[in-house]
Amino acid sequence: MDEFIKLLDRNLEYVSHEIIDDTIYINVISTREEITCPYCGESSSKVHSRYKRSFQDLPMQEKKVKIILNNRKMFCKNTDCQYTTFAESFDFLTFKSKKTKRLDDKIINISMNLSSLTATNFLRNSVASIGKSTICNLLKKKRYQ
Q: Which domain holds residue 115?
């Protein structure tokens, strides 16, 4: 399981998992020592707080995957920075996203050849818990990129 998590980010570490119905819930933590402030570029290792961030990923063994990340909020050490805290971010997730980028790509690829209703039903049953509006929003984003 740890190898699967390392595919997302080498700084993530597998903690535990649980299978409930058709979904695998995987708990992970970050092992980064220092995190760079996205606003000023200063590195910080001082933790402000922690919170759970959950997101969906590609299915595994015909089960949906939901990853629960124990995310850190950090203090910025730079006194000139206009922000005193910032949240840890990852390349495989966009800001406030509930799905990994690779899951977004899979949803777009499937929905390009099907109607949004057919794609929604197929994806809900086999890939991820999504709605028709999710597909429409992803296709709009792709069109404007």
A: 99-145
